[in-house]
Design brief:
The chain is α+β, with helices and mostly antiparallel strands and about 110 residues long. About 25% of the residues lie in helices and about 20% in strands. It has a five-stranded antiparallel β-sheet, covered by helices on one side. A hairpin with a 3-residue loop joins strand 1 (about 20) and strand 2. The structure holds guanosine-5'-monophosphate and zinc ion.
Length: about 110
């Protein structure tokens, strides 16, 4: 998708602080972190949202959430706890229409979210 920010991050056209990478996924630090650890995990291919990603075959969603756990391990929050969030659609505040999981941790978090 030519005008998609996260496609540009996946291709390297827009720089990002990369954390982990697989053939099909990329994890990089959020530019506006909401917690001491805030990493985004994207499929390198463009999927608009969770519904689109769910329809992808080959276990891509499983791989993406598995990478969320790998990020938590690598950043030292697997034991203390972390939150994995897919903001989906306008009520949830999805602002980039390239499916992504947020991994947040490093501080206690409130529930329910705002
Ligand atoms: P959403 O609001 O769609 O769930 O999440 C989009 C996230 O992308 C936000 O947390 C925002 O801070 C992050 N973001 C927006 N632009 C950039 C960017 O250019 N680089 C990085 N690393 N993160 C970005
Ligand atoms: Zn995209």
């Amino acid at each position: 998708m030519p005008d998609c920010l996260f496609c540009k991050i996946a291709s390297g056209e827009v720089p990002a602080t990369r954390v982990l990478e697989t053939e099909r996924t990329l994890a990089f630090r959020d530019i506006n972190p909401q917690a001491p650890i805030h990493v985004l995990i994207i499929p390198k291919r463009h999927y608009r949202d969770l519904a689109d990603l769910t329809a992808a075959d080959g276990g891509l969603l499983t791989e993406l959430t598995g990478q969320a756990y790998q990020v938590a391990l690598a950043d030292g929050i697997a034991e203390s706890g972390y939150r994995v969030v897919f903001n989906t659609g306008s009520d949830a505040g999805q602002s980039v229409e390239h499916a992504h999981a947020h991994v947040l941790g490093g501080r206690p978090m409130a529930w329910p979210p705002g």
